[in-house]
Amino acid sequence: MKFIADLHIHSRFSRATAKSLNFENLYIAARIKGITVVGTGDFTHPGWIAEILGKLVPAEPGLFKLKDDLEAACEKLLPFSDTAPVRFIGDENGRLVQLEGLKMELGEPDDSGRRRPVPIEGSEFLLDCDLAVVAIGANANPLLTQSDAEITLNKWGYIEADEVTGKTTKKGVWAGGDIVTGSATVILAMGAGRQAADSIHDYLTWGW
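RE: above sequence
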């Protein structure tokens, strides 16, 4: 077990802490962030002492973890975002019927210290569904960017547009905001919209 940091976390019995801050929710939040052990330094309230005695077991000298049955129950509550979609499966009419997913886990830290998700070999599974909404991270919607070959994309999959006018590589089409820059501020998106509006006005007045 690698000890990374010493964190002090108030119990749910503290006035300044959410009442949902129990060991189970601490475990789930830690798993999502890639932390494998959560400890607590707040043990003065008798109710918290009772939870410590009832829910934790020693992991190493001075360190504790959830009991195995509680840990297994929490694993089932982890969000679906801990998996990655591999492909969409349709029927003979082209209607979506299933999604193939792949479970992920955090890999070893890279040079920056960040642990990135890596696939778990052999963890593929099928999920029945008839509607899929592409809402993964802040990437450009592929239904838009891949539907027109005349619109050029950069190496990150965002639309290439002129920095001053917002013109794309397709005549009569402008783009701005996150679809061009990736995740950025609302102010920058609004500025891109104003620049594009000026360029569109010139186009309608003088041509491309």
